[in-house]
Batch of 2 targets.
Target 1
Amino acid sequence: MTNLETPIEYIAGIGPKYAEKLLYLGIESVRDLIYYFPSRYDDLSNIEKIENLKVDVISTVEGKIIDAKSVRTYRKRMSITEILIEDDSGPVRAVWFNQPYLENSLTKGKKIRLSGKLVQDSKGTYFSNPTYELASRVPTNMGRIVPVYPETRGITSRWIRWKMQEILKSVAAQIEDVVPTAILKRQKLTVLQEALRQVHFPDSFKKLEEARKSIAFSEMFLIQLNAVRARKNWKESKAIVVKFNEKLIKDFVGTLSFKLTTAQRKSTFQILRDLEKKYPMNRLLEGDVGSGKTVVSAIAALEAMMAGYQTAIMAPTEVLAKQHFETFGKVLKGFSQKVGLLIGSEIRTIWKKNTRKNFLGKIRRSEIKILIGTHALIQKDVQFKNLALVIIDEQHRFGVEQRAKLQKQASELKDGLKKSVPHLLTMTATPIPRTLALAFFGNLDISLLDEMPKGRKKIVTEVVTNVNRNNVYEFMRSEIRKGRQTFFIFPLIEESEKIAGKAATEEHKRLSERIFPDLKIGLLHGRMKPKEKEEVMSRFKNKAYDILVSTSVIEVGVDVPNATIMVIEGADRFGLAQLHQFRGRVGRSDHQSYCFLFTDSTSETTKKRLKALIESEDGFKLAEKDLEIRGPGEFIGKRQSGIADGAMKYLGDIKMIQQARLEAQSVFALDPQLEKFPVLKEALEKMDQEAHLE
Ligand code: ADP
Ligand code: MG
């Protein structure tokens, strides 16, 4: 018997040929097909009386074929099939070109529905190439709200509708709600069977909305239940307790050349409180570019170090890891400096000369207390002695799969003796809107740096069209004459660093030969070796270049305070969050900074987005705006979310997410083993397995 897990090729009328095509749509099983949602709907629910038809309007009629004929014009190699169809108000003609096989199905006496545009020309008034179906069949392609699916070669919406209807009918009874019945009732939701039916074949747009919302709720409920459970499991493991050391913190803060912001103090306090607990911290430190996350993390690492424990700090790139290595070395100067750097093949400590073996020995003996690096830190031969804390910087840059793996591996980096799980602090400069944070990071505690250090000047942001390009060049020149530096960013075209690298290389050539032959221009792209990249960055930092031409690899955390101009080519190709990140590369000193957004796009969405960027410097506000303009699907990436497309838009619905969380908490509190909810239990297990596969 067919069930939800049946491979799609075993379905009658599908077979291996269609299965191969369906694979392009990500459909492998019956379940996949059922969760393949329409991208839009055509309202063909009104069946018109033939006498009321209007020319140039798409309409649907139903009637009996009273005449049918097919003509072949041999000279033009064309076939014309023509019928006359009649309802109780009158007849109308319908004509198909080059579909000779219709002759066999559209025979006199048959009752059909047809839908299409009524045209009028020298040959009279008729439906041109309409779609049709037998009137005896359940309305599928017309006479109802019709689902339109994303198609692929050889798979039409019409075909999907037909299969969907058959399959829904045969497996509907097997579709079970994961959300317990009591909750469905309390939240006034449609049962899943019916909701899925309505999503594909809605009886009305109102029912469609209710159905989508119900499906979104049930997915959110699962996500929340998973988060609630993960949180509880996490709290069941043991961590190293790092006692709050007030004097140390005071001494350290006293050595800083600036005063911590209130937000920094609050976040630091939250983190230090977590470190005192017997179970591991799992906290996300969210703060805009330049909000000062590094020093907050340094305080945590310092405390662990002075208590005799180790900290591992992971950055997404070698450039950034090295920068952290330098920063940490600098700020921890007055304290014992047991900081090491491990990136790829390279190792470095403040003690000169080190073999890898030697270096690893120092980690194993806890002589290196703060180890900074890329994900090279997660290697079998890197063994800690007493790892109390893991910090992951710019975690959003690690990529989705990598991130999940990293967190898991990080939590498994065990201190050899006590088998404890390290405290985990992740940091991100992507401000996540509150709804999404609640939706996807429900298992984390969150600290916000929602305040910038004092004295930062507003960055002047302007959209520049091609015509005004030269003005910007002139302005750059005048700033550079004053001793400032400029970034020049190129978009990733077609997601390929190879092509972007080429574009950047060409532009580098153009700028150095034609526009600024008198200036020194550096080039940075993702295809360069890490060592080369690092060299270019440090040369830029040391003012060996006036201009740095780069692809988006520059985005990650680099700190060059003397750079005051950020030029972004093809600004429309970047998301708001990313543009905001780029802009954050400048404005890091007392000098006035500028961000120029080059674009020739005239699209409304682009205009809206760039306008938002000009008007606000608040990353959180921009994130909300980005969410609003692009929708959650674009914002978090559809594939990353695991949320069915049709349900996506409810991710902005904070009330629903909160309700889902409350309900999940209540279920879990009542029955943590989910003994009474076998379907739910199974769904969670499946989620686990999928997470492991990643
Ligand atoms: P991000 O949050 O983007 O990682 P950083 O930690 O790199 O930001 O900090 C950006 C710059 O701001 C650094 O040069 C840092 O020394 C400086 N900074 C951090 N906190 C403060 C503060 N409270 N007042 C002034 N400058 C600060
Ligand atoms: Mg940073």
Target 2
Amino acid sequence: MSLKILDSFYEGKAKTLFHTSDPTLIVQYFKDDATAFNRQKFGQIVGKGVVNLAITKALYKLLESKGIPTHFVEALDERRMVSRKVEIVPLEVVVRNRVAGTFAKRYAVAEGTILPAPIVEFFLKKDELGDPLITAEAAIAIGLATPHETAELDRLARKVNEILKAFFLTVGVELIDFKLEFGKLPDGTLLLADEISPDCCRFWEVGTGKKLDKDRFRQDLGGIEDAYQDMLKRVTGG
Ligand code: TMP
């Protein structure tokens, strides 16, 4: 593909996005920068960008093969991914299998409690408000999505959960929870967007419960780079 990378148009916490010579495609550059708690904590996780792109690529291929549409087109190199240009839906979609993170705090329920069935939550993507929890009804009422779209987000998120939960168990990892983002094509089609990586999932090693994700950074547990490399090996076999 003779795609020209043009100017950057968005500097995110973990990725920088670039326009390209094809107006329907963008390039995402995966950085090593890490933030947590709405940028109150920041640092670097060496090699993170490479790990997150490789894991995202492998998981998007798996999900595509199971009928989940994604924005992924191809990886140009270790840190740059070509993806379809989409309008990001301003909702973060979180799926939880076990209690952790903000769910544990919000309801004072012990971390690790197994939920009887997966829970899907929506959060409003708005840094200045601290990304608050939002109901589907409120999201529809303030014009962020249609009833059909919120139902589709819920349905797709649950399907992604079933596929990923089963996959991770084959590599000795329990998928505790994760966050998805979706984008819309000009014709309104919803695609899975952003990344799926240890930055936006909680992974616990089966048997030991060892955390193999960004909680090591959030909670200063040490061994962060090793955990990311461990996940890379498990997912890509490399
Ligand atoms: P939470 O327990 O902090 O709400 O997080 C739930 C999941 O979503 C967890 O796997 C981490 C991920 N997540 C993100 O990827 N980005 C975010 O901004 C937040 C708050 C959570």
